[in-house]
Amino acid sequence: MELILQQGLPHQQEAVDRLNQVFEGAGIFRPRNYFENPTIDLRDNRLRQNITAIQSNLPPDYRGFAVPDCCLNLDIKMETGTGKTYVYTKTMFELHKNYGINKFIIAVPSLAIKAGTAQFLLDPYARRHFSDGCGYGTEMEVGVLAAQTRKKNKRSYFPSVVSDFVKGSLQNTKKIYVLLTNMHLLTTRKNSMLARDDYDYGVEGFYRPLEALRATRPFVIIDEPHRFSRDQASYKVIAEEIKPQCVIRFGATFPDITTGRGKNRITKKDYQNLLYDLNACASFNQNLIKGVAKEHLEPASDQNAKVKIVSLRSRESANFQYKAKNKPTRTYTLQKDDSLAVIDTAFEGITIDGISANEVVFSNGQTKTQGEELDVDIYMTSYQEQMLRLALERHFETERENFCGRQYRIKTLALFFIDDISSYREEDAEGKKPYLLEAFERLLEEKIEEELQNLSEHEAEYREYLEASLADISACHAGYFSQDNTDSDDGIAEEVREILHGKKELLSFRHKDGSWNTRRFLFSKWTLKEGWDNPNVFTIAKLRSSGSEISKLQEVGRGLRLPVDENGNRISNEEFWLNYIVDFTEFDFAEQLVKQINGELPQALAITEEVLSMLAQKRGISADAMFDELYSQNYIDRHMNINIENREAMQEEYPELARGLYSGKVKNLNKQKPKPIKIR
Fold this sequence. Notes:
Layout: H1 10-22, E1 28-29, E2 39-40, H2 45-55, E3 72-78, H3 84-99, E4 103-108, H4 111-122, H5 124-133, E5 139-144, H6 160-167, E6 175-182, H7 209-215, E7 219-223, H8 233-242, E8 246-251, E9 256-259, E10 266-269, E11 274-278, H9 280-285, E12 291-296, E13 306-313, E14 317-324, E15 327-334, E16 352-355, E17 359-362, E18 367-369, E19 373-375, H10 381-404, E20 413-417, H11 422-425, H12 435-453, H13 460-471, E21 477-480, H14 490-501, H15 503-506, E22 521-524, E23 537-542, H16 552-556, E24 577-582, H17 589-599, H18 609-619, H19 623-632, H20 647-653, E25 666-668, H21 669-672
Parallel strand pairs: 3-8, 3-11, 4-6, 4-7, 5-6, 7-8, 12-24, 12-25, 20-22, 20-23, 21-22, 23-24
Antiparallel strand pairs: 1-2, 9-10, 13-14, 13-19, 14-15, 16-17, 17-18
Helix pairs in contact: 1-3, 6-7, 10-12, 12-13, 18-19
């Protein structure tokens, strides 16, 4: 199976075109050395003119030219699932074709993102797509930087991928050189791979890799810019050590920057020459990604048991108070590494990682401050089983439709986020399966048997697929956790390889030998929350806690991409839904997600002539009369600026002026369920 890449999609091509337009007519000079990029004249006023012209399509508060010092910064905002990797790959080809730029460094925040990016850049089909399908006729040489292990009494070798990158010649007009690295390798710590200068040999006279990279005058592409704030160590290495000519940031989320104090304190996004804004609202409204259907379960019992953090002694202990209906209140004092299971067995597997003066950090990644509470019900095994049942119910509803209800089938995947790795991975001394894994396999077996009983004679092939699943339940699921990177177990290594590097395998119904590929249920501990995604994830079940606070959009982001069918074709002419299942403490998840999506929209500050004419035409009056109507109600001033205090009232009276997410793109299924009533 090959993933069919589509070229010329408007929402992607526009971002490529805008980046291309930045350098039109600007001064570009040939390099002094064969291994350097051409030099951009950063003082050329054409850069300002081009960026200003491009930004005329953006809201006023997103405009503004950031004067380059020794580096030009450009930002592209694209929501998760809309094809950032494709866009910045095509951008590299375009900048090479039009301006001769052929040295690019791609910086990503994590190993999971690096694996996904490398997989895309090295995929033979993707290479043919850009070289032949797009007509560039250019080869991309990709070096993936990996950590080195220094052995005693052995020669110290200069990193070969850095050497190959640096030696790539500008004179080879049919080749682009790309170096891919994750943020943890961008460091100046003592003995770090890129900062050392004691190698046995160097490249082009450089013995320090960071200096060699700087000499190429590269363009740097940053993926997930919210992880690379300007005061972050890896970003400083890029800015101060590598010193690229240009940094292009691609992401759905950008860092915040705060100025002023007290009442004058202002926090806004740290955009630097933002060129394109494909935000979440536009992505949902234009059907570029799946819609979200959120669902939660009510508490498993009526005990309403809660554990409150009543006091803390920094680095020493934490006092917890246990309260439950019809039970006496109890107090517990716990220290670092103690298990919360001494309070209630529902907390089995969760320990205290750290205690500060204000908060407690738990082993599931969650942080709670003094005075906050934990709901015991969501940690109960019975509650988790109910969530698993609901997730399997939604999965098989979708899977059956995707398998039997269309000409070209869609492999349907489900993703489960857990906080206790041992509940899925670790067998006990007697070889008994951990409780979560045992429960999942038992419930999956029951569900498949139920589905088999309800199939018609016309669904014979789906019956084969389910029977193959039933014959080997363990083959249906796999897990990936950060600790797996150091695990020597061959079975775990194969699971990790398939999840991180085998996207096409996961999307295929058959193995190479023709047997059914039934793996479609994936488990992780939020390790995959950024960078990893699969277009055919249709259900995400968030068992227990997600740990630290992250945005709602990031949480659903792993399943927002539009799906591909069994032939690798992206399906963009239908509306699809992501089933998102949470516990009852997040009953308002859908509302919070909508609020976040709309909250990221820039607010219009003025009514334009075009909008005024549109309003007037709909009401059968002149534009002047429409102006008088808005002005008389104090909605606008004489210059058509909107009076902020009356904006909501104006949008309510004139719905055409309302901006935001279309109704129904994010659904709360709990509110849509019919409520039974009693009758006599």
